[in-house]
Amino acid sequence: MTDNNTVTTLERIANLLRIHSIEATQASNSGHPTSCSSMAEITSVLFFNVMHYDPKDPRNPAADRFVLSKGHCAPILYAAWAEAGAFPVADLKNLRKIDSDLEGHPTPRLNFIDVATGSLGQGLGFACGMAYAGKYFDHSAYRVYCVLGDGECSEGSVWESFAFGSFYKLNNLCAIIDVNRLGQSDPTPLQHDTETYRKRVDAFGWHPIVVDGQSVNQLLAAFKEASELTDKPTCIIAKTFKGSGLKGIEDELDWHGKPLGDKAAENIAHLRALVDEATLVRPQIPKVTAKVPELKKDKQIKLSSPPNYDGKKEIATRLAHGTALEKLGKGCEYVIALDGDTKNSTFSIKFRDAFPNRFVECYIAEQNMVQVAIGIATRQRYISFVHTFAAFLIRAADQIRMGAISFTRVKYVGSHAGVSIGEDGPSQMALEDFAFFRTVPNIVCFYPSDAVSAERAVELAANYDGAVYIRTSRPNFQILYKNDEVFEIGKAKNNKNPKHEHHLPRYRCSHLNKTYKEVQRNSLVDNSHVLLPDQNIRDLTDVYRRDKHFLEQQSNTTSQNQTVIDTKQAENFESKYCVKENYYSIPCTCDTSFVGRIIQNFFDRMKFGVEFFLFMGDVIQHRNQFVEYNYPFVPHSTCSNEMATLNEIRNQLNTRPTPVKHTTTSTYYDIH
Amino acid sequence: MTDNNTVTTLERIANLLRIHSIEATQASNSGHPTSCSSMAEITSVLFFNVMHYDPKDPRNPAADRFVLSKGHCAPILYAAWAEAGAFPVADLKNLRKIDSDLEGHPTPRLNFIDVATGSLGQGLGFACGMAYAGKYFDHSAYRVYCVLGDGECSEGSVWESFAFGSFYKLNNLCAIIDVNRLGQSDPTPLQHDTETYRKRVDAFGWHPIVVDGQSVNQLLAAFKEASELTDKPTCIIAKTFKGSGLKGIEDELDWHGKPLGDKAAENIAHLRALVDEATLVRPQIPKVTAKVPELKKDKQIKLSSPPNYDGKKEIATRLAHGTALEKLGKGCEYVIALDGDTKNSTFSIKFRDAFPNRFVECYIAEQNMVQVAIGIATRQRYISFVHTFAAFLIRAADQIRMGAISFTRVKYVGSHAGVSIGEDGPSQMALEDFAFFRTVPNIVCFYPSDAVSAERAVELAANYDGAVYIRTSRPNFQILYKNDEVFEIGKAKNNKNPKHEHHLPRYRCSHLNKTYKEVQRNSLVDNSHVLLPDQNIRDLTDVYRRDKHFLEQQSNTTSQNQTVIDTKQAENFESKYCVKENYYSIPCTCDTSFVGRIIQNFFDRMKFGVEFFLFMGDVIQHRNQFVEYNYPFVPHSTCSNEMATLNEIRNQLNTRPTPVKHTTTSTYYDIH
After folding, report:
1. B1 CB burial (10 A radius; 0-12, 13-18, 19+)
2. Phi, psi (degrees; rounded to nearest 5) at B359
3. Across chain A, what does the average pLDDT equal?
4. Which of A395, A541, B352, B589 is buried most deeply by CB count within 10 Å?
């Protein structure tokens, strides 16, 4: 099938790549030369025979894609690109140096890298996204290749991607598992049991091909076989040896992530003889032959029509998000939406119904969904909007982190945020999400407070050249803004005094440190409305129980709803149950009548010396009167104090290590 | 095999549980009765024939365990426990009420629940932990059952757990997949393709049994078969129908998470006829026959010997952690350690070598590792220490979140924290970890600054009745504390003025807002040491490049290391590249000589009006002289400002949306 000369040349190049991997890691005195060696033939065959690409134009949208999921093998990847002509081979020895972009793990700071890897188990999902875009959006013939380590196949995210790849029949996708048997600290669980890999891959709907991964011949045949499939992706299970070709090192434990040290010279000499570089003629790299459609891009992406609310009907921000996304899709053909089987809750279903060909159902696999979204968004072609409950977005925290290192432009949309999901319980409530998203480099976080600002958040997100988090809520809310209100990233609005804009992220609520009475006097709230520590629905129960328990122990209780209490008692209560600063915010619950009563009781006792701390978004507009300090857009660095306070309160009030014994409502337990 | 009477009774109980599920969700006007109905027979057979347990002592350590991975089916789980006698059946109608612990998703606030579920795909990992403890720690005959939904089988964490269960031959574990075909918004990807489920389960090393999940007979036979296996876990693939037995609802889409509404009465009447409750004799629940060893527990868990450092040799906190964990293991037989193939980096290997039977290698599957740790720690028997790189712990963020709702006592140990991992690149650096861990309810976070405090952190963690995060670092550090130093949770120390303790979490660094000169005058730093924005190793590169680029554009540069610069230029530089507040902290890098030079240049220009912001831990002790503001223990709420600042700086300095084109050191790019 393939002539001997081709095979020999690719074998020699494989050894040349081994040499570069050894030399670079010697120079940096760190790195993973043995993990590189096991994939030397795979790399040689892919980069010098199989893949169609242009080393001088590595981001060519019609070129084949390559993803190195086992990112710690960066040295051999850099070596392949250098040998292909992307940059001078001499630069390889700058690996891991402080002033070089040839970092220990690849990132798109290098123009031949599409996605950052180095946190294991993510590459295949990125590749799935690229292949999905190739097959269904670009309708192009380019192919996607992804090399995985065997160790990382323990990551569940890998199997999410396997399931995705077969479900969507991504025959343009080829994964290669480098089964080199050895992990970092031990052999991998399956070691060289390629038959089990074959069974798993087959069961997950891929076409498995088991090969000797050190055999150029077998690899060439396998890639050919893969390219001929029409209905499913291929997975080449390559049996290899860690440190393959390295004397005294091959297939030995304890060589993970270590340069060869004093074993380097001997091995390099041996490999040099095999390469015989003086006579090596590098093969022509296959030219890019696939075509991709040009995407017409406007400078500014706009909603097809402005928000259109009459101000009478309450609208949930999640619904407004869906409305806006659909409008965005009308004007912009490169907007894509993904959802994890929650589209009828997040309202991404509105986009799906309008543009079924630009919607990707990812099922309940958030990690893979984010990976696919990042893959789709590579090479700056498509803008992905990812949807699920905000609580479950954090399942993909590591993927979102890696996305930031990849400079991704993915927009994350988390619905059902905060306590307003009420009766479903804490597992469904996103409370931690903001603290995490704040730390994502370069991200912009939106927490729109009404339908108008939600629609504009979507529009601003599409135009922001980076990742965005949009946090939406379940309940219907009143409309706070006029349909033509103009919003900007980094600016909050003051509804009571529209001219007083809060410039974020420097804004802090310190001027809200007033007592309840002062606040009342200043008409920030009126008497009919009450405040409560910001917490989830469970806390309300606790407060109620504690409240009742407390009241039961007092003799001067006059009625269920009216409590007369002396200051001393109240102080004791406060010191026992409340955080020192007495920060409180406005409650959000689905059972307002009931909660209203609790809150009233609570604040009847709490109206001395309490400082206020207004929480954001859904909390605020849930009770219409509290719109004064309403943050339509909350950038990443604004809510650190809020989150800390929320957490402190919750720590004290919400969770207790000792669970209660009873489930009836007649028993009240002590708060520890 | 089984008499007709038993089968008929279990069928009638299944319908009774259906009725309860409908009635409870009618009362709460929310919930998932159709998802409950598909698993009615599974529940009936398990709770009234198969499982050995005591409804009056649900946390009996020798009883069989049950985990409802599809937590939204809480109503039928509550119904089973109520019918078994754990609490009054009448209470079932308090489902989801604000003053009831019968929440929308189960939590261990209920004494018959071991782990909170509701975020999908986690139950099987918890069950794996319970089964591992049963087989290898308790050496007991109790069995573990876990019901999964088919939708959640898209979660990769489920397949991590399948791989774990077979690798450790957990024949005491039985999973049941309720293949009811329908997800929330669409059919599941595999619908009723039970053959593919069978192949996947088989490939992952479990014993698969495909049954009609609505057939009591087939379920009874399957559970019997499962109990007879000796070398692998069993997975029963139960073909069922969503809304099974409910007229006009069974197998129909759009019935996810909805009460039956006006279809309830008719269906209840129909089911009541089938149950004929008046003549129903509930079977005897199989008694607990397994035995578990009693664990001798001391009131205080202590290191077997105090820290023992001579103060001359530098020691990494990760190594000190390993040392302490080994010491802890000597004195306390119920300490368990887990690692994700990083044990030679986290130094949990020291514990493994000393106590191989109490160490669980979880391979590269962080989600399952945390789930297993939580499962092992249930019923308050064992204390699990989980280990991996801090950067990869966040892979299990959702599991850690759910662990908090479960009141788990798991101790999370993340190594290689912060920028000190240097040349490996940002993917390996844990920078976001603290922001996330801070939000975990009730957690205590330790960031020990030297070996002595690291050892004591481990001891304090073991004694804290809740989750703990211990953040360790890679480089060797000097010893700061005497071996007999006493540490307490919530108190930081001031090394310069040992009597001045910082009481955390209220401590803020505001008094450090001094100019560089002022700081110098106050001898907080001396001239030979220099400061830099806190950032990862990439930033240093940026600073260097910018620095050099900047210097190249200046004519008054005298030499590479000495820069004379006028104030105006410096101001321009500052306004362009630096965050407004000018917060800086102390660098941490592996290339100190090189960085030292950069920093000196940088601060030669920066020594006007710069305010200082000291970051914590590894940053501080990395340069010995900066020990004055050293935080041995950083509780959860301390570092909000630090993180915000770190992030702001990083956003401006570190990441740019446009990647550079070149990899050589000769090209400098503009900062956007």
Report:
1. exposed
2. -115, 135
3. 76
4. A395
Contact: B154, A363; criterion CB under 8 Å: yes
Distance CA B230, CA B51 (A): 18
Rounded to 10 deg, the angle between the A156-167 and A123-132 helix axes is: 20
Q: Are B73 and B103 in contact (CB under 8 A)?
A: no
CA quadruple A249, A252, A254, A257: dihedral sign: positive
A650, A655, A669: which to substitute to probe chain B, counting the most B Cβ within 10 Å? A655
A353 HSE (CA, 13 A, CB side): 11
* Peptide bond before residue A505 is cis, with ω within 30 degrees of 0: yes
CB A343 within 8 A of CB A349: yes
pLDDT, position B448: 75
CB contact at 8 A, B27 and B85: no
Of A326, A366, A455, A459, which is the active-site residue?
A: A366
pLDDT in the model for residue B491? 55
Alpha-helical (H) ranges within A177-277 are 194-203, 216-227, 264-275
What's the CA gap between A627 and A621, in Å, rounded?
6
The answer for A670, left when phi > 0, alpha when psi is -120 to 50, beta otherwise, is beta
Residues in chain B with CB shorter than 8 Å from the CB of A187 are none
Structure token pair of residue B568: 């105006």
Can you read off the two tokens belonging to residue B431? 């920078």
What is the chain B residue with the closest CA to A82?
A: B663
Please state, in angstroms and rounded to a whole number, the distance separating the CA atoms of residues B67 and B373.
15
Q: Letter for the amino acid at B35?
A: S
Give ipTM to 2 decimals: 0.82
For B162-209, write each residue's pLDDT tens digit.
Answer: 999 999 999 999 999 999 999 999 999 999 999 999 999 999 999 999
Q: Residue B93: enclosing H or E segment and its boundaries?
A: none
For residue B555, what pLDDT is reported?
Answer: 30
Strands A444-446, B207-212: pairing is unpaired
- Of the ranges A69-73, B524-528, B540-544, B551-555, which one carries the lowest mean pLDDT score? B524-528
Contacts of A181 in chain B (CB under 8 A): none
CA torsion angle B132 B133 B134 B135 (round to 10): 50
CA distances from B578 to A194, A440, B651 (A): 53, 19, 10
Mean pLDDT value across residues B36-60: 97
| Exposure letters B202-230 (e unless 16+ CB within 10 A, then b) | bbbbbbbbbbebbbbbbbbebbeebeebe
For residue A235, give the H/E element and its range. strand A234-239
Give the separation between CA B544 and CA B551, rounded to whole angstroms: 10
Residues of chain B with Cβ-Cβ distance to A111 below 8 Å are 659-661
pLDDT digits (tens, 9 = 90+) for B342-387: 999 999 999 999 999 999 999 999 999 999 999 999 999 999 999 9
What's phi and psi for B356, nearest 5 deg?
A: -55, -30
Distance of residue B5 Cα from the nearest chain A Cα, in angstroms:
33
Of the candidates B298, B355, B349, the one whose C-alpha atom is nearest the C-alpha of residue B323 is B349
| DSSP letter for each residue of A533-581 | ----HHHHHHHHHHHHHHHHT-S-B-SSS-B---HHHHHHHHHHHS-TT
First to last CA, chain B: 76
pLDDT for res B476: 80
Query: How far is the first Cα of chain A from the last one, in angstroms, to the nearest whole number?
Result: 76
> B65-68 and B144-149: which strand pairing?
parallel
Does the annotation mark A366 as catalytic? yes
Flag the least confident range among A473-487, B80-94, B284-298.
Answer: A473-487
pLDDT greater at residue B428 or residue A191 = A191
